[in-house]
């Protein structure tokens, strides 16, 4: 059974930082491409970042230079470091096995002054 358990998130002022974690069981995150998505209120779920098995990364344009996706294979965990947060980053964030229907439970990130 595959489980993705997220932690982190919360409320922060614009310009602040947060780190999301996604701890996996039942799979090896090091042998799969992983991703982070987000869904803002009333919006569609959108892809934020991906990391391949070779640790190549991609980002949506609006987060490039501010967000970093990474993984720790020993901990079987994927991370999303978010810096210089903006109000428009407010959303529920989900980790995902890229291309598969395995999702974390979602974590709220709220950015406001």
Describe this structure in words.
There is one protein chain. It contains no helices and 10 strands. By secondary structure, it is an all-beta fold. A hairpin with a 5-residue loop joins strand 4 (34-39) and strand 5 (45-51). A 6-stranded mixed β-sheet has the order 2-10-9-4-5-6, with no helix packed on it. 29% of the residues are buried. It has strands at residues 3-8, 10-12, 18-25, 34-39, 45-51, 57-59, 67-72, 77-82, 91-97, 107-111. The mean pLDDT is 96.
Q: How is the secondary structure organized here?
A:
Layout lengths: L2 E6 L1 E3 L5 E8 L8 E6 L5 E7 L5 E3 L7 E6 L4 E6 L8 E7 L9 E5 L2
Q: What are the salient characteristics of this protein?
A:
113 residues; mainly beta; 6-stranded mixed sheet; 10 strands; globular
Portion in helices: under 10%
Quick check: average pLDDT? 96
Overall body shape: globular
Instruction: Please state the structural category.
Output: mainly beta
Q: Would you count the extended β strands for me?
A: 10
What is Rg? 13 Å
> β content, as a range?
over 45%
Terminus-to-terminus distance: 41 Å
Low-confidence stretches: none
Order of helices and strands: EEEEEEEEEE
Largest sheet: 6 strands, mixed
What topology, given as strand order, has the largest sheet? Answer: 2-10-9-4-5-6
Number of helices: 0
């Amino acid at each position: 059974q595959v489980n993705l358990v997220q932690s982190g998130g919360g409320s922060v002022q614009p310009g602040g930082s947060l780190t999301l974690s996604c701890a996996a069981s039942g799979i090896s995150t090091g042998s799969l491409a992983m991703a982070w998505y987000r869904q803002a209120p009333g919006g569609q779920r959108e892809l934020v970042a991906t990391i391949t098995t070779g640790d190549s990364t991609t980002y949506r344009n609006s987060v490039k230079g501010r967000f970093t996706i990474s993984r720790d294979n020993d901990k079987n965990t994927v991370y999303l470091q978010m810096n210089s947060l903006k109000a428009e980053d407010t959303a529920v964030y989900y980790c995902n096995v890229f291309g598969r229907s395995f999702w974390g439970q979602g974590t709220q990130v709220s950015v406001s002054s």
